[in-house]
Amino acid sequence: MDLPVMPPVKPMLAKSVKKIPPGMHYEAKWDGFRAIVHRDGPELVIGSRTGKPLTRYFPELATALLERLPERCVVDGEIVIAHEGRLDFDKLTERIHPAASRVKMLAEKTPASFIAFDLLALGDESLMNTPLTERRAKLAQALEGVGAPVHLAPSTTDIEVARHWFEQYEGAGLDGVIAKPLDLAYRPDARLMYKIKHERTADVVVAGYRFHKTGPVVGSLLLGLYDEQGALQHVGVCAAFSDRRRAELVDELEPLRMDSPDGHPWAAWADEAAHETARLPGAPSRWSGKKDLSWVPLRPERVCEVGYDHMEGNRFRHTAQFRRWRPDRTPESCGYEQLEEPVSYDLAEVLSSGSGSGGAGR
């Protein structure tokens, strides 16, 4: 491989802001695996956000990208899997598996797509210092008429369209909007773009915690919600406490600490088979590796309010943010029914708006 921009390349990143800033280039925020694709003739590398290759996990994409991308190029985008009209991140994580036979089976059963949104090099030319508007125009031209499973990300410079996307596209599993300065050069690993994500709150049961890697202080609180059958399901964690607050939480939660998980709603957490019928902490994962997933059980008697962006199935997609304790709420009142459901929206409609001329509102 001999390209003007060689792998590995870390992608340019975004920092969170509360509102959509004016006067920028806007795209939907895709909930998948960020990937930078290098193609030089028959050679292809799909690089992850950390620079590690993803090529072997997405053989169907490797074939499609060789068929649909320019002969020599470097393209930034997102790998996603659609299921029942919306993005499904869980099915995406299933691909990271050591067995090639399982990867092949999943590639046929739940094929992935690639959403292209930036162009770092084309032919012998590096576009790293080229303004975003020019890179986007070259990308749209290079992918004119491209077909599934490769897509050109919808884009616009109209803030009202971006606001509409922010509200509408969530129902298809997207989790916000990305805003990019029009003259932005491509800077790997730098947070020069802006992401605007949905933020909601929920009252949840605190049923345990994990120690922080630095010592016997709280690293994260384990959160639960009651389902319709009255079972407490593990829905995620909240973290990002200060060092002082981590130590305070150990003392604060000590009266609720159980000597063992016996009698706890998540007592079967160490039994791998139990995870097939309930959401429990410490689920086996190829991402966790040898990470210690043990936790301290608490009597599920305290309720806190957390901030979250969106759900992935019946759990929080990302780490929730602690807001406050809710002594006025009973644990039994913390159920899934309190969660806001976004209006359903077909992912195919999102993707179709990026076809043709290269994006809505341009």
UniProtKB/TrEMBL annotation:
It catalyses: ATP + (deoxyribonucleotide)n-3'-hydroxyl + 5'-phospho-(deoxyribonucleotide)m = (deoxyribonucleotide)n+m + AMP + diphosphate. It comes from the Bacteria. One of its GO terms (molecular function) is DNA ligase (ATP) activity. Its EC number is 6.5.1.1. Residues 105-227 form the ATP-dependent DNA ligase family profile domain. Pfam families: DNA_ligase_A_C (PF04679), DNA_ligase_A_M (PF01068). CDD domains: Adenylation_DNA_ligase_LigC (cd07905), OBF_DNA_ligase_LigC (cd07970). InterPro entries: Adenylation_LigC-like, ATP-dep_DNA_ligase, DNA_ligase_ATP-dep_C, DNA_ligase_ATP-dep_cent, DNA_ligase_ATP-dep_CS, NA-bd_OB-fold, OBF_LigC-like. Keywords: Ligase. PANTHER family: DNA LIGASE 1 (PTHR45674:SF4), DNA LIGASE 1/3 FAMILY MEMBER (PTHR45674). Belongs to the ATP-dependent DNA ligase family. This is DNA ligase (ATP).
